[in-house]
Amino acid sequence: MVFTDRLEAGRQLGARLRHLGGEDVVVLGLPRGGVPVAAEVADALDAPLDVCLVRKLGVPFQPELGMGALGEDGVRVINDEVVRRARVTEEELAQVEEREREVLERRGRRYRGEREPVAVAGRTVVVVDDGVATGSTARAACRIARVRGADRIVLAVPVAPWDWTERLGDEADDLVSLDTPRDFYAVGQFYADFSEVDDEEVAACLRRAANRPHGSAATGTPDPEVEILAGGVRLGGRLTVPEGAAGIVVIAHGGGSGRHSPRNRFMADALHRAGLGTLLLDLLTEEEERDRATVLDAGLLAGRLTDATRRLRRHPAAEGVPIGYHGAGTGAAAALWAAAEPEARIAAVVSCGDRPDPAGPRLPAVTAPTLLIAGSADPVVLDLNRQAQARLRCENRLAIVPGATHLFEEPGALEAVTELARDWFTDHMAPAHV
């Protein structure tokens, strides 16, 4: 079997591993060549992606021949047979280790930036490379995952020698390879394009994965579609409540967005990682979204949000759990309006980037701590948010995202909004007064 390139190999490998999609999975790619393959696998499994930092220890006079490997958390694997046959001295081995350890630490900073490694404890870890040759790097990667507390380890590669399970079967719980030929000489012989992967490509794969919304794979909990009867219509929703959630945030949006929107899923995913549940709620049916007057009817949207909140409180997953509102687009005014209802009992509100003025007369009645977010590059919306803040009598704050418009489409703007909202909810999601 010959693969066009690593991306094709990753897509085929991801298809083979789809049976893992219902588990709490983390995909770890081996830099550098294994990361583009792993990125495709992570997409297929809707799972988070990280690197498993391993450096091959090459024989000094024949660097392509691995005599061992180093990994994170102090993991060290030495192939004594290769060391003996190549007559590598202890001093030469130590010199190679010192050099590769420095590269390991430098690449960790380069690949992840300020991001922390993805937690693997108690989860199924899929270790992915573009192929297995001697197996020393894969062996070290599996040991790293084990040291970090992985519950189950799956070593998955597009191609490996026919006897690889005998060599590596004791390091992983499962081994998966698309092809195990007997005439195996090098991984590159099974790729039409086996061009070198550089550090920037690895970092780019990780950035894309970090910004890709994913549901149940990120939280380890079901992420079911739900229907909620509100205002006489059935509204679509997506409810995710991690075990021990400190609260549930209803992410409300009217027209022009929905529960499947990547932007809304991105926000929800960040809240899940912070220990909060979410209900992604469509306040309009698909037919209603085509009616401009309905889209702009803040009173209608607020009424449906209020009804949906009452029903949410009766859901077993929400029993006794504080509820907050995140309103974006036409849902921003709806969230403020609904939070002002006498029996709302909302723990915290975030109004993001749109016009809050339809809820203006009701703003003094809002009692929940309220964060207004606006972009500095949209002076009209910024001014309306300043006016809204002046009418609030509750704890409040106006956060301004530099250089952003009200849609927050500029580079880094969505990430800034997400951090602001996450921090506001985690700081204020305490049980509301009854």
Task: State the secondary-structure class.
Answer: alpha/beta
Q: Provide the β-strand percentage band.
A: 15-25%
The parts where pLDDT drops under 50 for at least 5 residues are 215-223
The radius of gyration over CA amounts to: 26 Å
Gross geometry? elongated
Helix content: 25-40%
For the report, how would you describe the main beta sheet?
8 strands, mixed
Total beta-strand segments: 16
Mean of pLDDT: 87
The succession of helices and strands, N to C, reads: HEHEEEEHHEHEHEHHEEEHEHHEHEEHEH
N-C termini distance: 65 Å
Order of strands, main sheet, comes to: 9-10-12-11-13-14-15-16
In DSSP terms (H or I, runs of 4 or more residues), the helix count works out at 14
Could you please describe the fold and organization of this structure?
The chain is an alpha/beta fold and about 425 residues long. Helix content is about 35%, strand content about 20%. It is built from 14 helices and 16 strands. Strand 7, helix 6 (about 165-170) and strand 8 (about 175-180) form a beta-alpha-beta unit. The termini are far apart.
